[in-house]
Amino acid sequence: MTNPFNTYLANLERLAPLAELNEQTIKALTTPDKIIEKELKVTMDDDRTLTLPAYRVQWSNARGPYKGGIRFHPAADLNEVKALAATMNLKTAVVDLPLGGSKGGVTFDPKSLSSSEIEQVARAFVRELFPYLGPTRDIPAPDVYTNAEIMAWMLDEYEQLAGVSAPGAFTGKPIALGGSLGRDTATASGAAHVLNYLVHAQGWQPEVLTVAIQGFGNAGGHLAEILHTAGYRIVALSDSQGGIKNKSGLDVKKLIKAKAETKRIQGLYCAGSVCDEAKLIEDGMEIISNEELLTTACDILIPAALDGVITSENAGEVKAKMILELANGPVTPAADEILNQRGIMVAPDILANAGGVTVSHFEWIQNQTGNYWQEEVVAAKLKEVMTQATGEVWQTAQIKKVPLRDAAWLVGLKRLAEALQYRRRV
Ligand code: NAD
User: What residues does 412 pair with on adjacent strands?
Assistant: First the structure.
């Protein structure tokens, strides 16, 4: 199993000479500003008291207020939260947002708690972390198993404690509480801009490219729809229960409907483990596993579910000529080496999925100014940020003759080092 924080450190060490970082800068980039560890005491519906470990890691505010999601997950631990905070700090720098990086986590399984119990956890997190949060201090957002409703509870708790209205203290909120239009599709739209840039830079035509996407949630589902509309041929899709494939192209809208109705992509053809073979064959469909999706014949492979799915075991079997990392960390460092040797381009997560934090930044600007934007304005600004960032990463890759991941790191590290130097922190 790859340790995400070790991967961050290894990349930093590997790229420090090329980024011309001095020892002090390397030290600053390997050390968080603050680690906050708390225990949340939460009263359950049956009056039991649960004690849950909670973390917030504020990596750096050299480029602006700390910014990063909060996850509710049984496997959330300090090591993971540290890695995610460091990566956020890099990601905001790659797309040049005036923000730093942080991340938070509470270790528990939200699926085992009622909605009102989850609300207790959210409110307790804010009460414990209150002195460290705020619109110009540290701005949380949703992450794994947290959502707009949870941000609403957190904001409400924060404002009650602060005694002021402070919508910019959290992003990813419901629209009714100052959320931004376009936030739902932001990660997918941002990734589509990255992909379009790279496809055109390669001289490829979207209409002749085939795409396979693992994960059909907020990020993967929206991206499938956007790319389908843009003329790409989506040939394989999957969710946690398995996938479906059609060489001639899938009808994404039909699959979105099937997923909404049956909670699974294969729901269009299968009830439980029993699939309608005749209908499958008639429609040119094939049932595939998640593992098979990763090595299916396609031009663009988009892991949009879990980390660490493309490994040294399957990287040699990948057929795609480009991988777009919509999930965080789906390609392990060992797989990266194999893919590089095989000439397979990887658009890295710190660029490819930065559309979400970019629109979070837009949400924060709207909250801080009280000036709210139409969805078209959000979309146009997102395109500008993502295209500019992809251009910079692409140019760096050409000039330094390095893969896109290294180029994205170099772009981010340069901005972080400059901010640290101006502040005389290094
Ligand atoms: P989500 O919960 O909405 O969707 C996850 C999808 O992955 C679901 O379709 C689920 O069925 C599928 N999945 C789960 N286990 C799977 C498995 N074993 N094999 C295949 N599919 C599986 O989550 P999301 O918001 O779409 O996030 C997906 C990834 O994108 C995560 O790595 C997340 O960190 C990253 N990401 C999301 C955003 C965002 O704004 N949503 C921003 C940046 C990064």
Answer: none
